[in-house]
Amino acid sequence: METERTDQIIDKHHREPSALIQVLLEIQAENHWLPREALERVAERLQVPMTRIQHIATFYKAFSLVPKGKHEIHICVGTACHVRGAQRVLDTVQDLTGIRPGETDLDLKFSLETVNCLGCCALGPVMEIDGKTHGKMAPAQTADVLRNYD
Amino acid sequence: MARNHSPAELEALRKGILSTRDPHKPLITLCSGSACQASGSKEVAASLEAEIEKQGLSEAVNLRKTGCHGFCERGPIVVIHPEEICYFQIKPEDVPEILSQTIQEKKVVDRLLYTDPVTKEKIVQERDIPFYKYQERLVFGSNGSVDPKNIEDYLAIGGYAALAKALTGMTAEEVLQEVKKANLRGRGGGGFPAGRKWEGTRQAPGDIKYVIVNADEGDPGAYMDRSLLEGNPHAVLEGLTIGAYAVGAREGYIYVRQEYPLAVENVFIAIRQAEEYGLLGENILGTDFDFKVIVHQGAGAFVCGESTALMTALEGRAGEPRPKYIRSNIVGLWGRPSVLNNVETWANVPLIINKGADWFTQYGTESSKGTKIFSLVGKITNTGLVEVPMGTPLRDIIFKIGGGIPGGKKFKAVQTGGPSGGCIPEHLLDLPVGFDELTQAGSMMGSGGMIVLDEDTCMVDVARYFMAFLTDESCGKCVPCREGMRQMLKILTRFTQGQGKEGDIELLEQLSETAIEAALCALGKSSPNPFLSTLKYFREEYEAHVREKRCPALSCKALIAFHIDPDKCQACMMCLRKCPSEAIVGGKNRIHVIDQEKCTKCGTCFEVCPPRFRAVRKTSGEPVPPPIPEEARTIVRESKPK
């Protein structure tokens, strides 16, 4: 991520230290992860210590300190999806991609995360890939959907 | 648009808006909430826009993209006004017919209507459909009629009249007393009386005070706050502004989950429009009351729904709770008195000011007034958002409104109150819903999640699931929560893997007691609830897991096995083709056999086996029969008589 763009985001929030989380969220949204250089820039310009940034970047689930794959898979494991068999969907994705939640494969093709309710409970179990929702998943359909991504 | 300088100007504006709207002109409303968008409502919207153009109806019909109607099971939902014809599960290809038949010819398209599952009758209007019929939609009702991105829709249904009334017709003290008299209790979990909370802040010393909307709806399976904020953001803003006036705050915050992008978008638009119309900002409606609202996006942490943790997060730090020797309504955000209520609580405020506490208190029970929105999900026929008066029996919600359990399965329990709540079994189904009633039954109201569980759900696994959730979400600040839950999760996981030992259940009970006594915040204190309530009502399931290594619900993977009944298998190849692990051996006219070594117990074979054969069997606590010998596997079929 370019330093200039990081600066724009920081300036948008008036260099307020209390806007730290909002600044990091914007960087995450644009870049899909938080590179070290960007965090150092934020620390310098907001005048907050790097330890606090590390604390926040590891405390909140939205942030990633490592690059993400081309396709981001979110498996909803909210209660409604859980009782309708989300674990089986997750197991299938793990088997097929070889990665576990929180991981990215070596080809940077897929990143896998579990999420706690996407609020589409009527469609459960739900799998979301790159923002597109796939509802009423069972192991066989999950495999079919994954095949469409390369 | 010029700012409104007085309530009279606001009324004139409202009349102006209404005069340009012909109530007889056809209006198509389309649910565009998150859940319907996931079912394809964006594509339907595009199709409607294109088709209106194509059929030359631009002048003859209006299209409005509204918030969530609540009946998410049947989304996307289209309603044609003024006749209020409801169409469900609309696909883009249905659009031309809707326009040519219903808009042009005034005919109802039967196949898109709701079919009553019992009488098989087609139902035309929303209010006759059982899902809606038994509800009382005081707060949620406007969702289906306003475009959240257009403040004029909200003004047209009387929006901001309560604010005008409060600011110019009532003192701040009178507003506070009205809310207190209504006995509005917090809809976010604790059920603390909002009026008393407000009073504490109003009386607290200091000039700078804050009001905060908690839209960090973290309970899995609960999404009513999202739907309100997405679908009717002005109702929340109006309530918040009234609250600010009552307690003497000049600044308010909306803390909204970043996972709710549409809610964030609509709230930003709503704030901007309210400012333009003079309903937020300086000198609201020409009075000397100033109020501004700032949106803060959460970054994904369940504990931030806790009041003190949320305030810490607003300050730009990691959201960890602090001890509450002094309540946050006295010392809160940046050390100032701060009122924090959730979305639904704020959305109730305009109603109370408009119609009065006496009107509000006619709904509900002795100790719980008004209505409550529940998110009815899980093993239920009609998944969706349901608003009922407090005191409605659980049975009515689940069976009359929810339509019971799908697939002919048996009801087992309903889980309420999110991860801190508990499970209520069948024999307590006549319990009226209310804050105190649910707590007495060992569960809680929480934010209103209602997850229905059927006979296939393992209660030990449900307890393990919530413990895993809470362990993952524990902020780690206090020991009973950080370490105690980790140990409880280990033990519960052992149960589901068939490695439970005698004495484990008692150990879990001891750990629960410690967490309840010693954890710092509500997340830790209530963490044993899912375990304790399932133990209370389903102890025999725990004992089966520990003593017999058997899962009575046939759900825990480590304790179940699949095999094919050779007498029933017709060698149809369905399971063989669908098995993702290629664990089924067999062929045409060869009885199929599951290779237990390769089987991952995903259950696909069990599901795809045609119901007329039912050859795949799922068992627990008993040995799998040995595979039939190779030589006995060939099926010899008699040729069909000619």
Descriptive account of the structure:
The complex is a heterodimer of chains A (150) and B (642). Chain A is of the alpha+beta class and 150 residues long. Helix content of chain A is 46%, strand content 12%. In chain A, strand 3 and strand 4 form a beta hairpin. In chain A, helix 1 packs across helix 3 and helix 2 packs antiparallel against helix 3. The longest helix of chain A has 12 residues. A 5-stranded mixed beta sheet of chain B has the order 12-11-15-13-14, sandwiched between helices. At the A-B interface, helix 2, helix 4, helix 5, helix 6 and helix 7 of A face helix 2, strand 11, strand 15, helix 18 and helix 24 of B.
Secondary-structure map with pairings?
The complex is a heterodimer of chains A (150) and B (642).
Chain A: H1 3-12, H2 20-31, H3 36-46, H4 50-59, E1 71-76, H5 79-83, H6 86-97, E2 110-115, E3 127-129, E4 132-134, H7 139-147
Parallel strand pairs in A: 1-2
Antiparallel strand pairs in A: 1-3, 3-4
Helix pairs in contact in A: 1-3, 2-3, 6-7
Chain B: H1 7-19, E1 27-31, H2 34-38, H3 41-54, E2 62-66, E3 78-81, E4 85-87, H4 95-104, E5 114-115, E6 122-123, H5 130-133, H6 151-156, H7 161-169, H8 172-181, H9 194-203, E7 210-215, H10 224-231, H11 233-247, E8 251-256, H12 261-276, E9 292-297, H13 307-314, E10 338-342, H14 343-355, H15 357-360, E11 371-378, E12 384-389, H16 394-401, E13 411-416, E14 422-425, H17 435-440, E15 449-454, H18 459-473, H19 479-496, H20 504-518, H21 522-525, H22 529-548, E16 560-564, H23 574-578, E17 584-587, E18 590-594, H24 604-608, E19 616-620
Parallel strand pairs in B: 1-2, 7-8, 7-10, 8-9, 11-15
Antiparallel strand pairs in B: 1-3, 3-4, 5-6, 11-12, 13-14, 13-15, 16-19, 17-18
Strand content of chain B: 5-15%
Query: How would you state the average pLDDT of chain B, rounded?
Result: 93
| Alpha-beta classification of chain A | alpha+beta
| Terminal Cα span of chain B | 82 Å
The CATH architecture term of the largest domain in chain B is 3-Layer(aba) Sandwich
Helix content of chain B: 25-40%
Number of discrete helical segments of chain B: 24
Total beta-strand segments of chain A: 4
**Count the strands of chain B?**
19
CATH structural class of the largest domain in chain A: Alpha Beta
Which term fits the overall shape of chain A? elongated
Radius of gyration of chain A: 18 Å
Task: List the quaternary state of the chains.
Answer: heterodimer
Could you name the CATH topology of the largest domain in chain B?
Rossmann fold
Give me the CATH superfamily of the largest domain in chain A. Answer: Glutaredoxin
Strand content of chain A: 5-15%
Shape of chain B: globular
Query: Termini distance of chain A?
Result: 25 Å
